[in-house]
Amino acid sequence: MSPFAVSLRVVLPALVFVVPLGAAAGHFLARGRGPLRAALDALVLVPLVLPPSVVGYGLLLVLGRHGAIGSLLEKMFDVRLVFTSAGASIAAVAVALPLMAKAAEAAFARVDKNLEDAALANGLSRAATFRIVTLPLALPGLAAATTLAALRALGEFGATLTFAGYSSQTATAPLEVYFAMQQGKDARALSLSLALVVVSTAAALAFHAWSRKR
Amino acid sequence: MKAWVLPLALLAFCNHPKTTVGAAISLKESMEAIHPRLEKSRGHAIEFAFGASGDLASQMDRGAPFDVLATAGDEPRLHAIADERCTLAWNTLVLVHRKDTPTTTWTTLDRTPPAFRLAIGLTPQVPAGVYAEEALHALGEWDAVAPKIVRGTNVRHVLDLVARGEADAGIVYATDVAIRPEVESLGEVPDAARPNVRYPVWVAKSASQDARAIAALLCDDETKRALVSHGFLDHPPKKNP
To answer: Which of A109, A126, B10, B76 has its CA 20 to 30 A from that of B151?
Structure first.
């Protein structure tokens, strides 16, 4: 399978978790108060600044075949994560989710709270206010957040290699660049790199367009 | 700060006489054992860089600062830039597994369950992986085993995958087994499939006198004795390599 096909098989399932969970976390970070918010903020920031190798090693200790959760998964569901695209997806979630949450926080924070209060005062329920007022106003920011998170997931290297390892299922474009380079296959490393540059630049331009919309 | 301080400080960092020797990672413990003798006889610091032989050869080819390199097999890309000085030692392949997991054998690898994972080195840069592929081909098991293969980025990474239980078995050198207490050998590769695992010592064509002297030390009998005490062979593992 081509490295970009592998990347898609890793990134798309990861985004299914990253986007809703990250948006929910971002909303709580933007509107929540108190120690719970502070705790979530720290929880989100730490993986964002940790070396990916540490994130990957942590995942391996917990979700590896002899880890606390990994051994249960294998016993109960016969699921193994290391060397599988599911494992690579988990590594992508671990690094992209914090970024999604922080960017979604900014998107929700920009929504004028007076508009939400006005909707509530006019008798709309909290859920309806979120659906009719908050979400549409935050949508361009959330699109930008999703772009950032998708790019981070696509560009994941360290945590993937440390946790999910290098196999046919985890040979994503970034890993292939590294291993092609090591084998002296510069044509392959360079063409994959250029493709990644093009994808990232296109996404960055889209991000710019979305984040200027209000 | 006066303007001459910075260049002087840089000189202080750069000017220590130091030689870097590249070595296959399977040689790590034995090279560390002879390290004091090398430094003592040369009278200056010697540093080792360990890694997969193919990675070290690419680095040397791209200008990494080692003039002496001991690899776990022939590295064709070195022929143009280095000369082979001697054979440091020989080694043999073993099948390993984690002690608390089910056993398997060389000749039944093709009959393992679909979820079975066999760790070998990444090819072509990890010689242990190249030898393992050769052996699996020679045993007629390659086609059945290929979908179950996972790769380590050097032979010690393969060993680690087995020690952590992420792979059900792995193919490493006989000398690697003792490094990880969780791991045990399931036997040497059958004679019919035994690859000639040989460690050549290379010296760059442009090497300094000092680097040549270090290579000579690596090729002497005392080094050979140290390697044998670490489980390496002082002769080829089969009669007709």
So the answer is: B76
pLDDT at position B44: 85
| B124/A contact by beta carbon, under 8 A | yes
pLDDT digits (tens, 9 = 90+) for B51-81: 999 999 988 888 877 889 999 999 998 999 9
What does the block give as tokens for B149? 């293969």
In this predicted complex, what is the ipTM? 0.72
B10, pLDDT greater than 60: no
Pairing of strands B82-91, B197-204: antiparallel
Output the CA torsion sign for B130, B132, B137, B141: negative
- pLDDT score recorded for residue B241: 45
* A60 and chain B in contact, CB less than 8 A: yes
Are residues B77 and A83, on separate chains, in Cβ contact within 8 Å?
no
Provide the CA A23 distance to its chain's centre, in angstroms: 11
Picking from A53, A62, A63, A65 by the largest number of B CB atoms within 10 A of its own CB, the best residue to mutate is A65
- Of B158, B76, B51, A8, whose CA–CA distance to B66 is shortest? B51
CA-CA distance, B65 to A81, in Å (whole number)? Answer: 39
In Å, what is the CA distance from B57 to each residue of A57, A151, B67, B158, B202? 29, 34, 11, 20, 10
How high is the pLDDT of residue B6?
59
Query: Do you know the residue count of chain B?
Result: 241
Low-confidence spans in chain A with pLDDT less than 70: 211, 213-214
